[in-house]
Automatic annotation (TrEMBL):
Residues covered by the GH3 middle domain: 364-449
Domain GH3 C-terminal: 464-578
Entry protein name: Jasmonic acid-amido synthetase JAR1-like
InterPro entries: GH3, GH3_C, GH3_M
A Pfam family the protein falls into: GH3_C
Highest taxon in the source lineage: Eukaryota
């Protein structure tokens, strides 16, 4: 895998010279082509491997597989499950049981998924095998990016953050999945081999306060501005969040660079010490950045003007990240935006191997050797799907999943994962559409979270429908040069009839007339037949647009960080259900204006 050797200066102190072994891009692509050409057999082998490695686990022992590893026996013996079904097993692992419960080898690390959809983080097992599949995904998409947009040996401005990583009372390590990856001993070397070394020191990435880490990431980026080859984060929300913060703190950053002294707002000694090693008085750089920023029109093209050698911006940009694309494009000027990969704390799924495609159309090719994948066709299981939307939970009726190579182009499916991390036929809760095949492995477009639905009676609106409605309505806003910074929604059943509530945080002052029109436009933009007919007969009440105070979505973010989430994995909850009462309270307490639609 590693055959090109280049020498680069990688030490922060610039004293040491180290050999940096770069990945062989052609070989990586060749390997990917080979496994995707043979997807069906590779899936069979992968399942066999998973079941052989974990056959002695209590969970599988109880299901009567008796050593069989073929897909047919697997499907006959192992039920489809949700996280709730596995919770008792996971709790025993968290509780310190070292017997093989879900995996053959005992689990020593637990990941916390972002939990932004359910309101609280979920625990899922993490192990070396999941780390290896993570790196495999990273390497694959890197290889395809490298082919289209080659980078030079330099640095990456990565807005990555660690959550609080804690030890459970029984000695297990628990942190978000990304934290577990960033802390893994293999991570740094893997990043070096991908020429993607983060320009911030570890003390910043693992700093205890993400506001302080963010400030220092920006400062490190500016110090290494000539070397920065690309700007990235796990989810692109973090990049937008970082440059919105830059708009507030840029003069302070310039002052730090000018004097070579870190602002007193950074209080953690370890972070201060690490930054002191990098920060030297540099009035020329401070003047240059000042001049660049002062010359920009409303911060358009900020990223390329700060980082003249950046080749692209990269991070997950699909799904709930799409609403940030407009702002990201604004900061990016002409720099390409590349959506990275598709996966979850539970396991990775696919890599983006067509990085030139705009993020709105990005698809992910499933890697058939990183897990065993099944797909529940949503068309055939439409009845379950509809009821599911109402109850927000899965029904007992067993749907019929198909295998990886049996999916059909144009159809939508719910993904089922069997991983190397102890999850067997696990309903991830994501809906994807098959857009084509790369060799014999499907290309998936992320559609939405399955349980994120606005629904009162016969209406069904997904996260995507909400996003399109907000996009349409905010265009009215755009004419006044105002922007929707973030949004969420809620079904209010306390009124009779119930109605949709959309929360908006907007930038600047917007007149009542415009917001009333936005509210009507939102109501009209939900074109689902069930919604429109219910609105016409008033079995769903007028949609309500509630404008919230500036900073409300930052409060929501802080709330999740307080629960142990990390900025790296944060996704704004787009539909806030009753289980998420604290977020609903934050939204409702911050409403400054509200409007009821008169569209129907
Ligand atoms: P987490 O709960 O933090 O592990 O996040 C995993 C979830 O993020 C997935 O189940 C998806 O809903 C979403 N996600 C991950 N990757 C992508 C992607 N490339 N596009 C859209 N959504 C994604």
């Amino acid at each position: 895998m590693i055959n090109r050797i280049r020498t680069g200066i990688v030490s922060v102190t610039m004293i040491e010279k180290m050999e940096v072994e770069l990945l062989d891009v052609d070989k990586l692509i060749e390997e990917f082509e080979s496994v995707t050409k043979n997807a069906e057999n590779v899936q069979r082998d992968t399942l066999k491997k998973i079941l052989e490695e974990n056959g002695c686990a209590e969970y599988l022992q109880n299901l009567g597989l008796n050593g069989r590893t073929d897909p047919e026996s697997f499907k006959a013996c192992v039920p489809l499950v949700t996280h709730d079904d596995l919770e008792p097993y996971i709790q025993r692992i968290v509780g310190g049981s070292s017997s093989p419960i879900l995996t053959g080898k005992p689990i020593t690390t637990i990941s916390l998924s972002s939990g932004t959809t359910q309101g609280k983080p979920k625990f899922v097992p993490f192990n070396d095998e999941l780390m290896e599949t993570t790196l495999q995904i990273y390497r694959t998409s890197y290889a395809f990016r490298e082919r289209e947009f080659p980078i030079e040996n330099g640095k990456a401005l990565q807005f990555i953050y660690s959550s609080k990583q804690s030890n459970t009372k029984d000695g297990l390590i628990a942190g978000t999945a990304t934290t577990n990856v960033f802390r893994n001993s293999q991570f740094k070397n893997a990043m070096k081999a991908m020429q993607s070394q983060c320009c911030s020191p570890d003390e910043v990435i693992f700093g205890p306060d993400f506001h302080q880490s963010l400030y220092c990431h920006l400062l490190c980026g500016l110090i290494f501005r000539e070397e920065v080859q690309f700007v990235s984060s796990t989810f692109s929300h973090s990049i937008v969040h970082a440059f919105r913060t830059f708009e507030q703190v840029w003069e302070e950053l310039c002052a730090d660079i000018r004097g070579g002294v870190l602002t007193s707002r950074i209080t953690y000694p370890s972070v201060r010490l690490a930054m002191a090693k990098l920060l030297k008085p540099n009035p020329e750089l401070a003047d240059l950045i000042h001049e660049k920023c002062s010359g920009l029109n409303n911060w358009y093209g900020l990223i390329p003007s700060l980082f003249p050698n950046a080749k692209y911006i990269c991070g997950i940009m699909t799904g709930s990240m799409e609403p940030y694309l407009k702002k990201l494009r604004h900061y990016a000027g002409g720099l390409p935006l590349l959506s990275s990969d598709y996966g979850s704390s539970e396991g990775w799924i696919g890599a983006n191997v067509n990085p030139k495609v705009p993020p709105e159309s990005a698809t992910y090719v499933v890697l058939p050797n990183i897990g065993y994948f099944e797909f529940i066709p949503l068309k055939e299981n439409a009845e379950e799907h509809v009821q599911d939307k109402v109850s927000n939970s899965f029904l007992s009726k067993e749907p019929k999943p198909v295998g990886l190579t049996e999916v059909k182009v144009g159809e939508e499916y719910e993904i089922i994962i069997t991983s190397f991390g102890g999850l067997y036929r696990y309903r991830l809760g994501d809906v994807v559409k098959v857009t084509g095949f790369h060799n014999s492995s499907p290309e998936l477009k992320f559609v939405c979270r399955r349980n994120l639905m606005l629904t009162i009676n016969i209406d069904k609106n997904t996260e995507k429908d909400l996003q399109l409605a907000v996009e349409a309505a905010s265009k009215l806003n755009a004419e006044e040069k105002l922007e929707v910074l973030d949004f969420s929604s809620h079904v209010d059943l306390s009124t009779d009839p119930g109605h949709y509530v959309i929360f908006w945080e907007i930038n600047g002052e917007v007149g009542d007339e415009v917001l009333k029109e936005c509210c009507n436009c939102l109501d009209r933009s939900f074109v689902d037949a069930g919604y429109v007919s219910s609105r016409k007969v008033n079995s769903i009440g007028p949609l309500e647009l509630r404008v919230v105070r500036k900073g409300t979505f930052q409060n929501i973010l802080d709330h999740y960080i307080g629960l142990g989430a990390a900025l790296s994995q944060f996704k704004t909850p787009r539909c806030v259900g009753p289980r998420n009462s604290e977020v609903l309270r934050i939204l409702c307490d911050n409403v400054v204006k509200s409007y009821l639609s008169t569209a129907f």
